[in-house]
Specification:
With 295 residues, the protein is an alpha/beta fold. The chain is 42% helix and 17% strand. It has a seven-stranded mixed beta sheet with strand order 3-2-1-4-5-7-6, sandwiched between helices. The chain binds S-adenosylmethionine. S-adenosylmethionine binds next to helix 2, helix 4 and strand 2. The site of S-adenosylmethionine has 21 residues, from helix 2, helix 4 and strand 2.
């Protein structure tokens, strides 16, 4: 996160939701396409994250299960769940994402009785308590202003014994050199400032016209990142029992990423994924996939 982003005032809830909506409305087509026509290594990794999450869910759902896909985006997880025989309720704040989801469901030929889409924030969707057999939350939690409240809401709507599969980005990952990359960038900025001193500002006129009346405030979507321990605590504080956690994806390497190109990135991703099968390095992957249960 940049210095500006850290010091910008936190938007109020409604404003925050607006920002998420605007951001994902603008990127909806990319999210709809990435699973079918990956353009970057990261797209492949995201598609694989969906497949891994669906494999976890498949152990707990089947014909007739009712599943919530929170932050369902273009509905690609929901499609896999419907192929498993589930009925899916997708909730998303972005109407553009839901347009793609609807189109994708229709193209795949699913009976409209098998799916429902609500264009709303998690709290605005007015979901019934203990109504879902399972919940999928992929790439959702990190955008929530109050993650603890979001998890409590998911707990409320899940049936006792139901399963939640949820992902979130890690704070310290191999890709950001376990959090050290930002020190490298800070040092590089400092050195280049020392080597290239700023040119002196031209002299200002005695009276400078003021443009506009109010100060512009830079708002940002807060995207959280998690340590394994904090993610686990958030889940257990909401009432969930964590049954498993797996790291996923080793891409977007800072500093060397551009130099090694897509092939290099793919190689690193595959190499780390292979190592993760024998050594417990998953907590430093790009994403964590948690499976949790409502007691
Ligand atoms: C990174 S995308 C992931 C989409 C999909 N789950 C996937 O994995 O392809 C996150 C989605 O969550 C939605 N979202 C974020 N916060 C939300 C909220 N509070 N309520 C509903 N949807 C939300 C966004 O609009 C966006 O479509």
């Amino acid at each position: 996160m940049s210095q500006d982003a850290q010091s910008a005032p936190r938007p109020k809830d409604a404003e925050h939701i607006d920002l998420i909506e605007t951001y994902f409305d603008a990127n909806a087509k990319d999210w709809s396409d990435l699973y079918s026509s990956a353009k970057r290594v990261n797209d492949l990794v995201l598609a694989d994250r969906k497949n891994a999450s669906v494999r976890h869910l498949a152990k707990h759902v089947g014909e007739g299960s009712y599943v919530l896909d929170v932050g369902c985006g273009a509905g690609m997880t929901a499609i896999d769940l419907m192929r498993l025989g589930c009925r899916v309720h997708g909730v998303d704040i972005s109407s553009k994402m839901l347009d793609h989801a609807r189109e994708n469901f229709e193209q795949a030929g699913f009976d409209p009785k098998r799916w429902e889409l609500s264009c709303a924030g998690l709290f605005g969707a007015e979901l019934e308590s203990e109504s879902f057999d399972a919940i999928a939350g992929l790439g959702f939690l990190q955008y929530q202003d109050d993650e603890a409240a979001a998890l409590r809401e998911l707990y409320r709507v899940l049936k006792p014994g139901g399963t939640l599969v949820i992902t979130g980005p890690t704070q310290r990952k191999f890709a950001n050199w376990l959090g050290m990359a930002r020190y490298y960038y800070a040092l590089r900025r400092r050195v280049s400032r020392l080597l290239k001193p700023k040119p002196k500002a031209p002299p200002q006129p005695a009276s400078k016209p003021v443009e506009g009346g109010s100060e512009e405030v830079l708002h940002v979507i807060s995207t959280h990142a998690y340590s394994y321990g904090r993610f686990r605590r958030l889940l257990s504080d909401a009432g969930f029992e964590v049954t498993s956690c797996k790291g996923h994806g080793y891409v977007n390497f800072e500093i060397i990423g551009r130099r090694i190109g897509s092939r290099g990135e793919l190689f690193l991703h595959r190499a780390f994924t292979a190592v993760a099968k024998v050594l417990p390095i998953g907590r430093w992957a790009n994403d964590l996939i948690f499976v949790a249960r409502k007691r």
